[in-house]
């Protein structure tokens, strides 16, 4: 079994929107989600005329929109942040402007396709070398693919770190790695600041993990779950194609350039917009060039989508949240360190159902979420809470 890694074209920005300003910025969120069609080329005097990061069929190379109980977070091409979000933010009251943030540094994104690999070990193999090299990371698990975000300025260091751990890059920036290429230990930890690091990178995975919990404890980060919140990981259904093309709706002739929106059941997007308009308790959408739309969503909202989604709709996932608002932006990859600890705990507990110990991950601008089965989430909280309890004398 191997993992295939590919860098996605472009540089990306990370946007933090506090929930109190969600509705004030819903219009640019929807505008980014549903870019204009190709009826005519947009004028360069309009924002859309300056936008990059779209394929010929108007699909984002990468886009993540996440709404959680902590924040709304958007990862989009830097041109969308500059030309769509920045103008909308400038129109907010001054005190509100200061609450929204767009990352000063841009990020690169690489995708990880690794069908058949155990989820927890896969993430450890991929992210531990980067964390050991002191590279900040964000990790996003989707229905099809895993995505890792790293600062653009660290691209060369990323390549060197992966090469040193057995990755082999081809000329087109793809890489392959065995799922057992890293250290035999299953523990992993956070990434530290690289500009410059406050201390040398850890010398071992156990030291790296210890730093994770020390930093979280110092900043009073306490893991929590939202009562009654259960998630489903699913995907938008693709429409059947004829001779390689999606059939035009209602039998209409296809005189216009085909767009990616026409390849997905329209009920999926009606449901998606309906969910976003009501400010969901939890929704994470990922669009990527080579995948159908991937959705991690509050199970109570499934009815909005009808039969337009594919996946295990009977599943029952529970997110454990970490509010990282008081940590430096470059430290948000710390959620992966927590996840590494949980891989250990799942192995020690030995759940009856092997799939019950499967882990998913979501890094957002100011928060992190580790997503497990309902059974495993109880084990996880029992493991994490004692590690992050404040000392009595502090």
Automatic annotation (TrEMBL):
It holds the Pfam family ACT_7. Residues 103-162 form the CASTOR ACT domain. Residues 180-206 are annotated as: Disordered. InterPro entries: ACT-like_dom_sf, CASTOR_ACT_dom, CASTOR_mTORC1. SUPFAM superfamilies: ACT-like (SSF55021). GO terms for biological process: amino acid metabolic process; carboxylic acid biosynthetic process. This is CASTOR ACT domain-containing protein.
